[in-house]
Amino acid sequence: MKSAAILISGRGSNMRSLVEANLPVSIRRVVSNRPGAGGLAWAAERGIETTVIDHTRHPDRSSFDAALALELDGAGVDLVLLAGFMRVLTAPFVDRFRGRLINIHPSLLPAFPGLHTHRQALDAGVRVHGCTVHFVTPTLDGGPIIAQAAVPVLPDDTEDTLAARVLAQEHVIYPLSVRLVAEGKVTLGADGRISTRAGTSATARLVVPWE
Ligand code: GRF
Predict the structure, then answer these.
(1) What is the DSSP string of 50-82?
(2) In Å, how far from its chain's centre is CA 50?
(3) How far apart, in whole angstroms, are the C-alpha atoms of residue 60 and residue 174?
(4) In the prediction, which pLDDT does 200 show?
(5) What gap in Å lies between CA 113 and CA 29, rounded to an integer?
């Protein structure tokens, strides 16, 4: 069975969805860059080892990333799952965990990379928005896409209502994607593209957020 660490910065609802999905993955650690991250207590209550690596105590990104890599290597994890982890990781860190580092982003990439994605979507006037799970590469929010889910944007949506609709789908596609990677059905190929195991058939799930 593969092992994983989940990296968070805040409330950790995506972390919860991964833990509660009963994936064929042993969750060895939850690591936060913020001591006050709400998700830490939830994980600890469930007997998952938690670690804080406070980024404010590191002089630069390289120093923080080195401490993080040491922690993850020490825990001996195969997969590193970013779940609302709000730090940009350096290229050496990303390269070290190539093909094992996965992120969830609250937009239909390549639209709306970066922060405030729901505000960006509302400002752009798109009628379809959503979320993306992707392998992390040194290009911010630019790695090969594993799965996406779409939701409609309604005329009276606010950032909060739209975020809630997208978040519900994040909780569906993140566990689904991690399962595919953990089972070896989806890998990051040497050419930098998604590679699927021979015989893997294409499936589409229509995600309907309401009736
Ligand atoms: C999620 O929308 C995630 O995609 C984004 O930040 C939010 C974190 O939420 N990067 P949570 O901490 O997983 O509840």
Answers:
(1) EEE--GGGSSSHHHHHHHHHHHHHHHT-SEEEE
(2) 18
(3) 30
(4) 76
(5) 27
Per-residue pLDDT at 209 exceeds 90: no
| Ligand 1: centre distance to CA 9 (Å) | 9
pLDDT of residue 204: 72
Q: What distance separates the 2 farthest-apart alpha carbons in the chain?
A: 50
> Structure pTM?
0.96
The residue whose CA has the least distance to atom 9 of ligand 1 is: 84
Helix (DSSP H) and strand (DSSP E) numbers for the chain: 6, 9
Whether 105 sits among the annotated catalytic residues: the reply is: yes
From the CA of 11, how far away is ligand 1's center (Å)? 8
Q: Pick left, alpha or beta for residue 150 (phi over 0 → left; psi -120 to 50 → alpha; otherwise beta).
A: beta
